[in-house]
Amino acid sequence: MNQDYIKPDAWSIVEEGFDKERIKSSESLFSIGNGAMGQRANFEENYSGGTFQGSYIAGVYYPDKTRVGWWKNGYPEYFAKVLNAPNWIGIEVVINGKQLDLNTCTSVQDFRRELNMKEGWYKRSFSAEMPSGEQISVVATRFLSLDLDELGAIKYEVTAINQDIEVTFRPYLDSGITNEDSNWDDKFWNTTAVSMDKDQGFIEAHTMKTEFATCTYMQTMVAYNGKAVISNSGNKTENLVSLAYDQQVSKGSSISLTKFGGYTVSRNHGKSELVATAKSILDKAMQIGFDGLLEKQKDAWAKIWKMSDITIAGDVKAQQGIRFNIFQLNQTYLGKDSRLNIGPKGFTGEKYGGSTYWDTEAYCLPFYMATKNQEVAWSLLEYRYHHLEKAIENAEKLGFSNGAALYPMVTMNGEECHNEWEITFEEIHRNGAIAFAIFNYHRYTGDYSYIPKMGLEVLIGIARFWHQRVNYSVDKEQYVMLGVTGPNEYENNVNNNWYTNYLAKWCIDYALEQLEVVKNHYPEDYLRIMTKTQLEDPETSDWAKVAGSMYFPFSDKHGVYLQQDGFLDKEMIKVPDLDKSERPINQKWSWDRILRSPYIKQADVLQGFYFFEDHFSNEALAKHFDFYEPFTVHESSLSPCVHSIQAAKLGRMEQAYTFYLRTSRLDLDDYNKEVEEGLHITSMAGTWMSIVEGFGGMRVAEDMLNFSPQIPTQWNSYTFRVNFRNQIVTITVTEETSSFEISEGEPLTIKVNGKNVVLVPGKTIEA
Amino acid sequence: MNQDYIKPDAWSIVEEGFDKERIKSSESLFSIGNGAMGQRANFEENYSGGTFQGSYIAGVYYPDKTRVGWWKNGYPEYFAKVLNAPNWIGIEVVINGKQLDLNTCTSVQDFRRELNMKEGWYKRSFSAEMPSGEQISVVATRFLSLDLDELGAIKYEVTAINQDIEVTFRPYLDSGITNEDSNWDDKFWNTTAVSMDKDQGFIEAHTMKTEFATCTYMQTMVAYNGKAVISNSGNKTENLVSLAYDQQVSKGSSISLTKFGGYTVSRNHGKSELVATAKSILDKAMQIGFDGLLEKQKDAWAKIWKMSDITIAGDVKAQQGIRFNIFQLNQTYLGKDSRLNIGPKGFTGEKYGGSTYWDTEAYCLPFYMATKNQEVAWSLLEYRYHHLEKAIENAEKLGFSNGAALYPMVTMNGEECHNEWEITFEEIHRNGAIAFAIFNYHRYTGDYSYIPKMGLEVLIGIARFWHQRVNYSVDKEQYVMLGVTGPNEYENNVNNNWYTNYLAKWCIDYALEQLEVVKNHYPEDYLRIMTKTQLEDPETSDWAKVAGSMYFPFSDKHGVYLQQDGFLDKEMIKVPDLDKSERPINQKWSWDRILRSPYIKQADVLQGFYFFEDHFSNEALAKHFDFYEPFTVHESSLSPCVHSIQAAKLGRMEQAYTFYLRTSRLDLDDYNKEVEEGLHITSMAGTWMSIVEGFGGMRVAEDMLNFSPQIPTQWNSYTFRVNFRNQIVTITVTEETSSFEISEGEPLTIKVNGKNVVLVPGKTIEA
């Protein structure tokens, strides 16, 4: 554990004390977002010390060009980058003619940050002494509105402590910003207009290449002693617009600036409407006012927590950790816009380009299914349906034909935008996760309608891909799949990765099954899809042949499926026997050494056992878990959750809890010394799964919710809520018992430890 | 075949006719070099059309920074680039005040280039009409002196055809040059001084980062009607120095400019001595004169040809092709400087960075051993000995220890400078080629002295590497080598590449043998080496254990060694059954598809059968040849030669000749449509091997030269010469017979078709 400066608190993230070394880490941890935009917790006032500036607009990216040693056919020409957007939060604060800058103040006292997760706001307060002796205190409160999701609000209050002072506020917008991560230091933004209108300012700028047009806007009000302070000047340059407010502030008195700001974007509005739309948002904001907006913010977050909160009694750090994870997932994605998805770092940094990975389907979907209405999960599925044509193009670039679809490893708009052959071309299991998500959605929601409407076409494209991707081995007399990278990215270009082979077979079987269902029950959809895809019988029989004769590497000696061909040739030294100085191996070893080692970055065979739990006995799970876990270094934040769930299933609660701890406070405690780059958003969903599916044992089987609750000995009790088919089920687990309740609606039959239990509204049932 | 504009000629490369589309190709084909520097056949006068400017100084490079998607530990920070050096050949030619520029002339007639390989010069001649109507003819002759290898010479003659004209010559030096291949458009050269002195000009410039200091220099003389024309002005700018000569030239008369120029470099002289050295070279040149230097050039090339010429009767294109190959190899490397080596493109382009690859040991060494004195081959070996420390460092970066050495895949100074993990970290067979070269040198020259002096240390470092690189497979109960790339780069990260495993075993065995020999016969060297390397017995026993129990993949069904584990799982469609539109696969297929295909880029298992011919029966060779060749696409220019030699050995002369043709005129006929990027220098040595080792059947065995000559039916006869232990042996093969002679020295016993034959000077023996 590398830091423990975050104060334990059930509902808030709190930092106390000013430490310049922590600025970038706290900028990540105190990030705010509303699904449509987000930003790092940069200071409003100037700061001359080290900082990582970031404000991000969902879906606005830049295709940065790339270059590699030897270009490979099929590589995309670019790597999509999430863009640091124009700064709208900036407020120059000038005390007696000198800039307030915490980096140069003589002293900074009572520095405190709070990210209030219950209500969805971020507050920073401090006292500071200027080099020229003036003492002031500041309270700055900020939030991004869930209600008006193109709007953010700031209240910035300055109090004169030891003398009368002249305060000048210069709130500004700035489009002269850059990305930390840029390959060629290209200019990403082009500013086309800078304007102001009384207390309002506007910058129109568009991204280069992608041509996303944006209006960054602001309106400010300053009040002193109950009276408005009038802006006395404004300033415009090529990339900047600022207003200025001067006021003498008496010792002991406070002056307050309220700033509304944000972005309107051509993704959502006509390009010529951006300024007008911004003005109408500002009108609404002015009508409602800062306090009114804050009230709405609290209500909106109350609704979110009502469906998704997890409480843990007896362990405040665990409580804080899980709420932080749930909070951040909700800040990142709310499912309102099916063109958006969940970037691994959300709106908290630039790394991973803000793009979509298989993380969404494999890890995030269960969280959103269980804590939102089903429309949100539908949106996530629809996102991939909209990208089906691009996935077919992507497969064509790699030599596939006839409508075979390969979804990209990393994408912003459906096109592949990553270029390392061993990942881009070979980590094809992502295709299977997308098919599995369709199955999972139907299993959880009971809603079959997605499949005839959209899903079946996706399943056909994916089945076609697998059918073309395998080949028949005369030597093995079975179908094999050569040259892939599995979820364990510490192996590249292996043959017969068990997980990928298993997924491929399952995808084909599932597609064939759904073809039958749709044919029999949705004949019109079937006809439309058959016409569109030109799928005919000889092809599906060929699919079936492949699925029926797929090769799975297996060791008779060990009684386990092998991660891939040749796995047993490795030097099988278990992780605990590896010198600690060698770890993490991805920082200590060259790539070839990692590849030839037995070490597993994240669950691979076990990922398959997680997805297809019903296909394997508990004995088989135990055998595979005991074989593979000792070689697993969990150097992906997505690894421990699967192991936690499986350890819980095997009744190994101590081990399950140990795995749970590895992700629940990964960012808060900065295990990997990299939190300053941003938060691990997608792995946060894994933490949620560890509790709900792991400790709570929640499954959906036979169209019913199932639970087999356990509790870590470190906890007194825990409670979680899930939305199952429009009923909110609350589950409370203590050492002694588990209790279940629903708040309204029809009676709901669930299974607890294999036995049916009928829940009726308002009644808590112990089971 | 893509071009046939090169006229067949036994001793010259000739182009006739002006075609702007061919400029870049001809710039490559007519390149000149003298081992110390080289240049593309760029025009002296201005040319505003498409051109690829290149003048290169041996050993002068730039470490261009690189960036890749995901950096891997152990990657070098840079990729070495051969540098386009300052231009010393430039001559502005001004006719009646207007620049001569063939791109804008009204007509260009009688355009002719000749690269005279026998005498080592390049001549260009043409008549042109200026847009303003003046008609002139030009003859420009150029060579880089073998005698004074820092010097080049140009004679540039202009004749007035249809009217009196005013000719202005402005010879210049220009250091404001760039590389075509630059990752970040960095500036590679920094000019520090520009000076002139009467008819001389000097530019001092050094490379960025590597700080190679150079003086580019020139001296010019202009003569008209037997009288010197005096320079009337000069001009200096930041990166340029030029002189100017004005002269009225009468219709029918000629004016001639002689320009001497070149580079002095801090690799060879003190930094403060560069200008003075240049002046003293110019003094020598002026004393000898252009014609005198040209005579010396002819003599020097006559000496080279005396030892290395191959004549082919009855096929002028074949004759031209083989001489072109021998000529270019000699232009690239002459073995005078053991800090230099043979870049795959020599001095003819920028691609492959001018760096050293395993091509040198595997393909070029046999050529240089047989056509030079043995000091040249010694220099090539010494080059690697000087890099041993760097090879040990390189291995340490990849986690090896205790003096294990991994030579770089690509290098300028011993450091690795390529960063693709599958090549840099995994194409480790290069280490074996370097050990094999030591064996090969001793076998051919009979000179053991390199081994105790230098070679044994190299062999120890290499043996240590292999010993550490393998691991014991409990499953196979043998040593395995996981995660390598063999010579067939169309497979990456495979397990148990047969060639690499075989080389590793052989390297260890050979090192152990040489340890014994040195111990017994060179006790002082042995003591020194043991002290330096700290090699002790338990370690060598461990080596022996590995060599004695190495795993080699073998197919009982096919009776062949497998290229790697799992090779038989591929879809085994032979190359002739592959649709032509799919080829070359490296241009048509994405990398993953290439990798999972059975297609072989260049000899892999067969490369091993070539190196270790004695270890396998002819039957085994035939079996492996017949198994692998049908899957070989020969998309490396290094592939056909090995197959040609082996086909000849199997008595399949038609097939051998077909393979031979694929490389002998690879560049002249531009098979791969890329000759404009430069020539394939290292594969030219393979062409030489195809004749000498393939058709001539030359081997060294039992300390004797062996021949088993055959002749392609397309030829009447062929003759080649080799220097075997300081005796020049001339071999002439006709359809009916083979004859052998030596010119001087002691009688020499050779074997022809297995029978001893004694050669005595001056007597031609038929056998």
Describe the model.
- 2 copies of one chain form a homodimer.
- Chain A is α+β, with helices and mostly antiparallel strands and 767 residues long.
- The radius of gyration of chain A is 27 Å and the shape is globular.
- In chain A, strands 1, 2, 10, 11, 12, 13, 15, 16, 17, 18 and 21 form an 11-stranded antiparallel sheet that branches. A 5-stranded antiparallel sheet of chain A has the order 9-8-14-20-19, with no helix packed on it.
Question: What is the topological layout?
Answer:
Two copies of one chain form a homodimer.
Chain A: E1 6-7, E2 12-16, H1 23-29, E3 32-33, E4 37-39, E5 55-57, E6 61-65, E7 78-82, E8 91-95, E9 98-99, E10 107-116, E11 121-129, E12 135-144, E13 151-160, E14 165-174, E15 189-197, E16 200-207, E17 213-224, E18 227-229, E19 233-237, E20 240-249, E21 254-265, H2 274-308, E22 310-313, H3 316-332, H4 359-371, H5 374-386, H6 388-397, H7 421-424, H8 430-445, H9 450-469, E23 471-473, E24 478-480, H10 498-521, H11 523-533, H12 537-548, E25 554-555, E26 560-561, H13 585-588, H14 591-596, H15 605-611, H16 618-628, H17 639-649, H18 653-664, H19 681-695, E27 699-701, E28 704-707, E29 717-724, E30 727-734, E31 738-742, E32 748-752, E33 755-759, E34 765-766
Parallel strand pairs in A: 28-32
Antiparallel strand pairs in A: 1-2, 2-10, 3-4, 4-5, 6-7, 8-9, 8-14, 10-11, 11-12, 12-13, 13-21, 14-20, 15-16, 16-17, 17-18, 17-21, 19-20, 22-29, 23-24, 25-26, 27-28, 29-30, 30-31, 31-34, 32-33
